[in-house]
Amino acid sequence: MDFNPRQAVVNNEDCDLHYWYQGTGPLITFIPGGNGHGRQFNPMLAALSDRYTCVTFDRRQMSASQVKVNKRLNPPQQARDIRTIIKSLGFEKSIIFGSSGGGIFAFQFAHDFPEMVEHLIAHEAPTITLLPDSSAIFEWFLHLMEVYEEYGLERAAQEFSARLTGYDDEGIPKTVPPEPENPRNFWDNEFPVLLGFTPNLWRLRENKTSIGVMRGVRCKDAFFARAATEQAKILGCPIFVVPGHHQGFEVETEAFLPHFLKMLQTLEEGRQ
């Protein structure tokens, strides 16, 4: 279908959350990661809105969803923001898709509001504390914070992006960039929290939440791709290797979509 969403705003905890949606049928909520903006999911909304109601949004303190004073990232608050958007659309449950940091917020949402999760798909959620080399990755993250504080955003982002494999592969379109203030908010307020935060995946398994995880083939052995493998071990859930890099759903949507639908089918069959 053509991309022609309805725009809306809902307030939660002193933030006007800007979201947009289109389609009919069961709800899929797409959660942005560290870049903060929902525009990266617009191709998925267009592709799926013939059979699903699809919604995405700009996260708190990102893009259009600004606050008076930026604060440190609060993952439970992010989960409450997601709950507010779902309920504002008149739904009690949703399929959840979160990529990168959005996958972490998806896990947190399932932890705090398990009754609202139909199925959850986490795409390369960077839960670094689960990795066999977590000590080295954690110390690298601390190093990046020091680089940011001493040399600034450009140099820290450059070092970080060096491990985002696949973005420069031949023939791969460029992703939609975030607003300039988003990376600043990420490094000031989100990165220091995310570097050591992992939701309680064991509780999700106890709750029998319907979960699948994904890792992109272009990401190879990047830490966020390997994290999905460790999540699958803990959760005992399906793991798919899918087309694309860390944002393959945005720039290789046609190739990504069948794998997304196959995961939903797998999760639905797992309930029967």
Automatic annotation (TrEMBL):
<dbReference type="InterPro" id="IPR000073">
    <property type="entry name" value="AB_hydrolase_1"/>
</dbReference>
<dbReference type="GO" id="GO:0016787">
    <property type="term" value="F:hydrolase activity"/>
</dbReference>
<protein>
    <submittedName>
        <fullName>Alpha/Beta hydrolase protein</fullName>
    </submittedName>
</protein>
<keyword id="KW-0378">Hydrolase</keyword>
<dbReference type="InterPro" id="IPR029058">
    <property type="entry name" value="AB_hydrolase_fold"/>
</dbReference>
<dbReference type="Pfam" id="PF00561">
    <property type="entry name" value="Abhydrolase_1"/>
</dbReference>
<dbReference type="InterPro" id="IPR050266">
    <property type="entry name" value="AB_hydrolase_sf"/>
</dbReference>
<feature type="domain" description="AB hydrolase-1">
    <location>
        <begin position="26"/>
        <end position="145"/>
    </location>
</feature>
<dbReference type="GO" id="GO:0016020">
    <property type="term" value="C:membrane"/>
</dbReference>
